[in-house]
Amino acid sequence: MSWTLRTFQTATTWVIVVVWAVFYGVALAHANPLPAPDTAVVFLVLPPLLWVLAARLALHHWWSATGSQMSTMDPPQRLLTAAVAALPERRREWGRAMTAELAEVDGRSARWRFALSSVRATLSLRPAGGWPVLALMAGLLVASVAATGPAVGAAVPGLRAFAMTFTGLVGALVILAAARSRRPRLPAPAPSVLVTAGVAASITATVIFLRREPTAAEYLPPAAAAYLAAVLAGCLWVALAAPRWLGTDRLAPHLGTAAAVVFVAWFLLVIRSDGTQPPLPLVLALALVLPLAPVAVFLVPAFAARRAGRSFRSGLKAAVWMVTAVTPLTYALWLSEGLRRHAIDGTLLTGEGEPAAVGANLTDALVFALGIFPVLGLTIGVIGAGLGARNARPPAASPPQSPT
């Protein structure tokens, strides 16, 4: 392991530890009541430990694939390489030619001038379809955003900011795809349909929740609504126009979405078993399965995809698809089960045991389903991909052929 990689890993470790310590200290200062000492220590140590492990594994495999090559480049070559990587497929050959021509340029100032001029050329390339078409699409997008917000806000109070943000983000992604001449491609139709259905279910669950409980709109301020729209639009982006850096492995999306379905089933089992008294053998089985199930669901798909695809990117792709499917499905389930639980005893889905406003379920869904679960799942998934890469054995070399 080179000194530069060790430096990157050490710097990343300290950044994660310091940022989490500051954030956690501020959270404790505003907490009322304070958590128990053992709970506080666990949350202080466990999250940064997982993040550091995931970051170091990701850096290790990134360095093996790309970072070591980037470290041998001078700044002009790094700048041009990054610009070429962002080009659409139809312009990639021109970018490679510019990179090869830069290798023949001598002198630091001359290399900077050539690299900057090439980057300016990449920015001024004519998009697919031409600027007039993109301008027309942008105008239609602005009109759609302006019309959608008031219409949705009048029908469902509290969803105006969400409707405008979601429409704008989805429209921007469509314009970007048109500019890069990228048609929406389904890397795996079944996982794409599942994620799209999850996004539709999330929007439907939010509408039903606010229609039944209009006072819950105060628990969805504009910032939270924009965050919800950004997350759901990102899920659609992965499902319908998966980014190129995720690779072309077709097994990883199926593994990730299958794990998401298992996690949703586990989540529903936890919710429905709360407050019941099952038989003793079932209690012992649940006590063993329920705490370990989330870790296995997040870890195993990335590990298996890495071993099957023999690539860290395959494991990362499975983790991304798992998070992309888990997020909208658990959010929709949280809202529907939150309404059911509150109608029974007036409590929240988090099991605090005291009556609370039903709208607090909306806040909890945003925090857990769109925050804690995706971060935890992606972190453990990256660790699974890293462990799979570390344990994977290279293919055996063929024996040498004897001369005839």
Keywords:
76% helix; single chain; 4 domains; 404 residues; mainly alpha
Structural description of this entry:
With 404 residues, this protein is mostly helical. The protein folds into four domains: 1-60; 79-125, no CATH class; 126-173; 184-391, no CATH class. Helices cover 76% and strands 0% of the residues. It has helices spanning 3-29, 37-71, 75-85, 92-102, 108-123, 131-155, 160-179, 189-212, 222-240, 251-273, 280-309, 312-345, 360-391. The longest helix has 35 residues, at 37-71. The protein is globular, with a radius of gyration of 25 Å. Residues 391-404 have low confidence and may be disordered.
DSSP E strands, number:
0
Biggest sheet features: none
Counting H and I runs of at least 4 residues, what is the number of helices?
Answer: 13
Backbone shape? globular
Helix content: over 70%
